[in-house]
Amino acid sequence: MAYDRAAVREVLDKARAEGRTALTAPEGRRICDAYGITTPGEGLAASAEEAAAVAEELGLPVVLKIVSPDILHKTEAGGVLVGLRDPAAVRAGYDQVMAAARAHNPEAAIDGVQVQAMVGGGHEVIIGAVTDPTFGKIVAFGLGGVLVEVIRDVTFRLAPLTGEDAMGMLDDIRAAEVLRGARGAEPADRRALADMIERVGALAGDFPELAEVDLNPVFATAAGAVAADVRMLLADRPEPERVRPSREEILASMNRIFRPRSVAVIGASGETGKIGNSVMRNLIDGGYRGHIYPVNPKAPEILGLPAYPSVAEVPGEVDVAVFAIPAKLVPAALEQAGRKGVAGAIMIPSGFAETGNAEGQREIVEIARRHGVRVLGPNIYGYYYTPENLCATFCTPYDVKGGVALTSQSGGIGMAILGFSRATRTGVSAIVGVGNKADIDEDDLLTFFEQDDDTRCVAMHLEDLKDGRGFVEAARRVVRSKPVIVLKAGRTAMGARAAGSHTGALAGDDKVYDDILRQAGVVRAPGLNDMLEYARALPLMPTPAGENVVIITGAGGSGVLLSDACVDNGLSLMEIPPDLDEAFRAYIPPFGAAGNPIDITGGEPPSTYENTIRLGLSDPRVHALVLGYWHTIVTPPMVFAELVARVVAEERAKGNDKPVVASLAGDTEVEDACAHLFDHGVAAYPYTTEKPVAVLGAKYRWARAAGLLRG
Amino acid sequence: MAYDRAAVREVLDKARAEGRTALTAPEGRRICDAYGITTPGEGLAASAEEAAAVAEELGLPVVLKIVSPDILHKTEAGGVLVGLRDPAAVRAGYDQVMAAARAHNPEAAIDGVQVQAMVGGGHEVIIGAVTDPTFGKIVAFGLGGVLVEVIRDVTFRLAPLTGEDAMGMLDDIRAAEVLRGARGAEPADRRALADMIERVGALAGDFPELAEVDLNPVFATAAGAVAADVRMLLADRPEPERVRPSREEILASMNRIFRPRSVAVIGASGETGKIGNSVMRNLIDGGYRGHIYPVNPKAPEILGLPAYPSVAEVPGEVDVAVFAIPAKLVPAALEQAGRKGVAGAIMIPSGFAETGNAEGQREIVEIARRHGVRVLGPNIYGYYYTPENLCATFCTPYDVKGGVALTSQSGGIGMAILGFSRATRTGVSAIVGVGNKADIDEDDLLTFFEQDDDTRCVAMHLEDLKDGRGFVEAARRVVRSKPVIVLKAGRTAMGARAAGSHTGALAGDDKVYDDILRQAGVVRAPGLNDMLEYARALPLMPTPAGENVVIITGAGGSGVLLSDACVDNGLSLMEIPPDLDEAFRAYIPPFGAAGNPIDITGGEPPSTYENTIRLGLSDPRVHALVLGYWHTIVTPPMVFAELVARVVAEERAKGNDKPVVASLAGDTEVEDACAHLFDHGVAAYPYTTEKPVAVLGAKYRWARAAGLLRG
Known about the structure:
Number of strands of chain A: 30
Distance between the termini of chain A: 31 Å
Helix content of chain A: 25-40%
Radius of gyration of chain A: 31 Å
Number of helices of chain A: 24
Low-confidence stretches of chain A: 493-499
CATH architecture of one domain in chain A: 3-Layer(aba) Sandwich
Oligomer: homodimer
Shape of chain A: flat
CATH class of one domain in chain A: Alpha Beta
Largest sheet of chain A: 7 strands, mixed
Strand content of chain A: 15-25%
Structural class of chain A: alpha/beta
Largest interface: A-B, 82 and 82 residues
């Protein structure tokens, strides 16, 4: 698309030169013209006569709007009249609008009255762009009136955006059907609407100083889209530029930090109960095989290893320095570590920004930048990286190696991650605390985990993003090859922000995170336990090849609840083709129900479970299985678990590798059966029909976002 | 309100006499008049001239609508014209509408054209009533157009309903603010709208044969409400009357069934693996102290007890007969049991309606009715009632006595209930399978549990209700004294029903269950695990005295997630008054955060937890506490658990009895700490911030429904 940037530049510079942040309607219109955004025919009138003449030229009826840089809310000022049907009404209207505006604000500079062809019909929608504090420029779209303002049925994307993304926005609101002509309404020209959204995104992207763009209403008809009212605001001051290291620079540091040849522990101690003692013991007991250099000016030896008075005196190279000293001693020690050339400073101490000591935190970042040291923390429990047996934390070592990397912004959540992982024997590649995120943040970690073959899935707890756009870029790359799960805390605490436009008011909302994380292909977890369960289960499951989910259950009651859960999680219950239906029926009692769920009925022997599950795994039209087990004497829990594990392994060996999840209803023995199934790659849960389907749903959300289900 | 029932009767009888189920617009209007439902001024015209005359009398503009019993969808037939502004247009319009109707259906009988004053402005709403298959007559309300038809923003209540209930409906839609005048819209006359809803409810209640009543649109303005279009349909056949035993009759049977002096086991067996053996062993091993009479024609003695060839030959009275024989042997045995005067037949056998043998099921119900025997099942695992050590099931005995009664429609879900209860040591009064519900259903059980002092909370899994209205009546009574939790399975499977009106189409929806269960004061659980967790936790918690919830947390990260969960669960975070804030601050480090959540910060000693928790419990303005614990060396998990249990007990002894829930973030030791807390009345969960708040939210939902928070 061709945009006239120079014309916009001129309008903005003029407003800026006049010290204004609000653009007038004619200015807004000039900008729209420059970006190909259709507005109604209009003209500016400086007298009642001129208004009538313009109206006759445009064609009646018309709308009159006061034009004044000092009157932002025109309607409230009595500065808007609609539906003027003849020249006399226009003349009278002109006088009325001028009088109202003067009464409203006698000081206001008035440029005249805008005479606008009255547009209408079709659907009223709102299209806008604002600067989000986390994500920068974002575009909003919704149906106007009650839907967007009361129901808040609105959707957001990063700006700029492609036409395809814009088209996706049209389908992403709850009332999407309306634009397609639901219930006899006129279908909108969706292409024209998407085109206008794309143009607004381009405008916002090209001119960061445009703080808010608000087209409201836009009339969307079968013939096109017209922005009937335009409001634009300039930012008070320019957005600060963010400087980010290149991917290569990040990886150079991160690879040294996660696979260090040597680790110095600054503040190492032989005294039990001290953090510097816990870190030393965890490095040693965890089985880390690189050099460990305790640093302590008062001890010649700690836990059998020679100690050094400072990191400067360590004989060899040092990749990582773990800090276990009080905050006030950090700057001097970090200066030494910087000179020594460490790649990473693992900053366990608290007492920085989280206690109000923002200055102290700035100081250490400044020292680190000067020496090219990356800082993790401060105010963290440390980090684990199991492929290197590296346990640089003050907690206890974690040793169940596996595919998931977990990070947390909070220490408490980090402890919950550790406890859950240990209790469920979740296979973990890394557990990382990011704490105050003075330097290293989620983008850096994603960049490392993306190319880390030991990590197959990333799960992150976060309360904010320092650079939402950087995160989205990194996440978009990573999700192509591995799922990224995010628990965003503080969903409901954002509250309303003061804003000068409708779009601005709508944007102060968790929905922005929701839409943009989804756009990035991230799987958002609704709560802590969900994040942990997704992290545990997703790496176990192969990627499904398509949308056909089949439920096989021994308990009709579970089948109904599993179906409910499938719908809740956006999964498609396969319509079983007649030949397959017949094949299933051959294995189940005559009063059982084929269809989907396939109810094999209670009291069946192991062979019925085995035959039907094998059929589901081997038929190429089936893409994932949800199993419902009912505890009976005929098929006890562990018999079920062993047969499922065996059948899944046998079919996998034949190339039939599909996600299988299970819900086990029964007495307490089902818990051991679930553990056995998990150990054999089947995500299985006792006493719940929701969890197995929720983790399968999460896997599907990722697979769709990664584009793996399109074939 | 005064309703003219005779006028309605006359209209309905005439339509019925003419073999019609669709009422004409003038008929609908006469019914509206009789029930005080305002409709626009109108008249029937038989010629173009007459139409113009009527229009001038009513005042222009007008709407024309064809009147024909054979044309139901007038708009589709071209039989509606709106906005006719002068007599000439009305005359031309009359001819056009007649021609269109004839073209649409040349066979149609045409009564003329309805001339209606054109109403409009304000808000378009829909008010209707339909016959729901579960609940009978229900009333629907929503905002018209996109909101109700695409977003499905609609709410339902049982008909008839009070004016207060009707007013509640106005607030129960998502777009409720609109009617209050949100965003500059005209506020509706809410009293007039509620009044119209109440009148529609009365009409539907008075005339069960009115299958569908559809007022759409109703124009709601500040001046009142006018039903611009009325559509009414008669049922093809009358609804069958439901006969229910009286509360006294139900209780007489239920008390004998749950507290039997004697139990006969029909099909008792000495052979391990048989159901009749499991039942015998469970009765004996479970510690049941009444008489146990094994019935088996082939054995003189079973498990050391004398056996009888038939129940008729049992020497004493028999309160309960447990059936553990094949379906085909049931009728004869039931006949004998009936003659013997048993109160309840516990019908374990399958092979009835669930396998297509509906006839067999009808037969046993008929036998039971004849003898005044109540039947539980068939197709169930049996029932437990722990106060009597009564374990009449083929599972294993359950012995953790406590306050919750659980019922399930499905055997699989029953086994999940048992396993979960055992694994979590949930205190249970009863576990009951209802299976096919041939006779005893949830209403009967609620009636018993209501007056059972050993039951403090009821949790029910159900897939359908035989008599939704009976259930609501029973539930309404029970919830006044104890919570009723319902897991309704099949939420998403109902699909669309064929329907002749907008209201009818809207009603084919799980939303009906949702609204009406809520209206009954029932706490609906979103899934199986939620139901189980609510059942475990609710009886532990005292009833909160008010809405002020306070979060006290050692981990800021948990505090954020706990706040999110509070908002998700409709809980109100207390605004801490300045004096209380100061009192909390005295106990926490200067960089901690008072406010709410109260962040005492990590690394604090037990005394900080103790002081702040005690303050929260003792200050009468605080009504419930949510605790967030972070595992540290300074305050290990069991130290935290023991101090919380002690402080809660001490404060309870002083009369400060409040709900306390806790989220424990830490290594695996937190699991034992949670178990200890649960044993001491604090609902505590590891690795989740959602569950503790969800159970507290459920307790609040019940307390509000029971009217206990109004003081």
